[in-house]
Specification:
Length: 233
Amino acid sequence: MKTLGERSKERRKIINLTQLQLSKKVGVSSVTISQWESGDTSPKGENLYKLAQALQCSPDWLMFGNSKNTKKPESNAEWAGGFDLWDNDSPLGEDEVEIPFYVDIELSAGEGIAEGVEYKGPKLRFAKSSLKRQGVNTDHAACVKVNGNSMEPVLPHGSTVGVDTSATEIVDGKMYAINHDGMMRVKMLYKLPGGGLRLRSYNTDEWPDEHINNEQLKNIKVIGKVFWYSVLI
């Protein structure tokens, strides 16, 4: 089975890029690209996304080799860098909308934490055009933090995700926020024959796939699809 570095090198050659050209697109040195391809180090967070974008593939394909994921730069959610918190006194821009940021509620990307009580605290601002592109209605969107390491390196501990609570229909390979027996988690979901569900993490070394049978599904509620995430590391 090929490694992330081998897939990265393979993809780079397919789209006819040198290590130097790729490094400029990603914003790192050519030495770093060489280290990634040799397996000495691995891209994480923002760098993983930028590498996938430059190679015209998805982080999923770089990490797992799923051939269907080479068609789009990112198939799960829109990535963003830093963001600002705003209070009620900050005027909205013409193309801006506010989405609640529930800072006291975490989506566990590891073992899970007990659901907290929602409150209206800080808000994050999004461009209306960005939400429209993702097909997200502001009334059905919320932002929360990810806790744990199971979704690393794509979503390190402390990342923030945007969840579309109206999108609960499962599409294989997409990231969803779920309520798992009273605990909130974020996972990639896959349907299984017989009505079961597979929960997948990016960090499969520490967090192997979880197979949920039809009977166990009663303990899982899909909260919504992850449409956006921000990594601050």
